[in-house]
Amino acid sequence: MNRDPDRETGGMPVSHRPSPVTGFWTLFRKEWLRFWKVSVQTILAPILTVLLFLVVFAHSLSGRVEIFPGVDYAAFLVPGLAMMAVLQNAFANSSSSLMQSKMTGNIVFVLLPPFSHQEFFGAYLLAAIARGVVVGAGIFIATVWFVDLRLERPLWSAAFALAGSGVMGALGIVAGIHSDKVDELAAFQNFIILPLTFLSGVFYSIQSLPPFWQAASHLNPFFYMVDGFRYGFFGASDVSPWLSLAIVGGSFFALSFFTLWLLRSGYKLRH
Amino acid sequence: MVPAIQIEQVSKNYGGIRALDAVSLRIGQGEFFGLLGPNGAGKTTLINILAGLVIASSGSARVLGHDVVADYRSARRALGVVPQELVFDPFFTVHETLVFQSGYFGLRDNRGWIEEVMHNLDLSDRASTNMRALSGGMKRRVLVAQALVHKPPVIVLDEPTAGVDVELRQALWQFIRRLNRHGHTIVLTTHYLEEAEALCGRIAMLKQGRIVALDSTQNLLRMHSGCYLELRLQPDRLPDSLAALVTLRREGGYRLALRDYAEVESVIAGLRSAGIAIQELEVLQPDLEEIFVQIMRRT
Predict the structure, then answer these.
(1) What order do you get walking across the sheet with B210-216 strand by strand?
(2) What total number of domains does chain A contain?
(3) Within the 1-40 window of chain B, which residues sit less than 8 Å (CB to CB) from chain A?
(4) With an 8 Å Cβ cutoff, are A113 and B104 in contact?
(5) Cys-Cys with A91: which of A112, A141, A168, B274 at CB 3.0–4.6 Å?
(6) What are the pLDDT digits (tens) for B136-185?
(7) Is residue A95 part of a domain?
(8) What residues of B are in contact with residue A106 (Cβ under 8 Å)?
(9) Residue A126 within any structural domain of the chain
(10) How many CB atoms are located within 10 Å of the residue B17 CB?
């Protein structure tokens, strides 16, 4: 350790006014870099997984199944698979970051600074949405070369991508705060997130299901995310996109209020 | 002047366990203050309440007059905490870690101070090193740097030298002393009582969540009116009349605990009458460790 007495170190007046915006932006940037630095694992791996799904399912079913008139099964599949990856990665980002920080103890570095619970929530949420959107965009870029994709109503797709990843980012914050062990988070992921995304109409239209499973699908909020997102591509959907948007938007606001309440209470963070 | 830290009737319960019991404490600006106590005494709980990591069950805590709950933004900006655990974020380098920590406190362009802190903690050469690749001592330096990066007027060090080598320990204390000379309030918890004795102007001792002693270090040291007598004798034995005074038996020597200096005379007389020659004699003052042990036993 080098202490040069000529260097003025002790007087430490704060020379510039601290800004909460800087705090929020820094926390978002840290969360962004956290997944960007390991992008092989956090971005490329989910894109590869989707491509494998696409190759297997499109090869097996293309030409045999037509869900929307004039839409090839591979083209039908891409938006569903992309949305599934968006949702899973948005959830994984906020949940794993908080869970790992809690387990290693470095959560203290974001609890000691003067963040409000809104800033804390906003930064983790925005990073989760960012990862979801980056993965979704990556899937789009990777598949557009060999699948004939239309994007008829891009704003609808963008709205569902943002709202859907927002729901999952908020859910990830709740799961990350609540889970004390890796297995608890894994259970959340494997027994809730994964089945609900797989059974949300990613691989099929719910119109092709028996009445009971159609009704059950309407209880799955992920179905509305996938169906609304797909509407942006083909201008066709199983239910009205307005209904889907209302359900997804309502879920986002409800979950956000719950997460903010949880953070404000200090649940499992400030004892 | 507003106190650097003001704690009033703070209690903390964990289920049925009372970790802090109506603790009140006032630490003035510019003090070097020691918070001592055995494991589980409540030191870290008290620090965590100040830092907002733990919510008190009752009572209030203020940092430079800012309530840690109602006015948490100002309170946290005024406080830098070096946590006890050696924690780090494995995704980032030393420089990134410090830039982020500075940004969390709302400081956007803080490069000059970050470089200065790194220079003073001898971290400049490791700026681009990932945190995972650092030794324990280096990680500890980064923790100190993280606590200082937003220029807090009140600095809390929770056992900062636990498991740290002598060189870093001494260098760290020189740096912290200098910050204290420049007006920063330092609150230190440590199990190395010789460090507390050498550094702290005032000391509070905690036991089972209560403050059992609070005074200047000098006054605490004066509380013990007795002294110790270290003897090397020929032949190497004590008369029975002095055996009860022995606190330490070493190869070729004894340490006797005396109530006061006047007792030295009677010990020498006792040895002389028993025909035992004194080869070496040294009178020792009790140190903070002795005082600490006494207070903990007494309360």
Answers:
(1) B79-82, B154-158, B185-189, B32-36, B202-207, B210-216
(2) 1
(3) 14
(4) yes
(5) A168
(6) 888 988 999 999 999 899 999 998 887 777 878 888 888 889 999 999 99
(7) yes
(8) 87-89
(9) yes
(10) 9
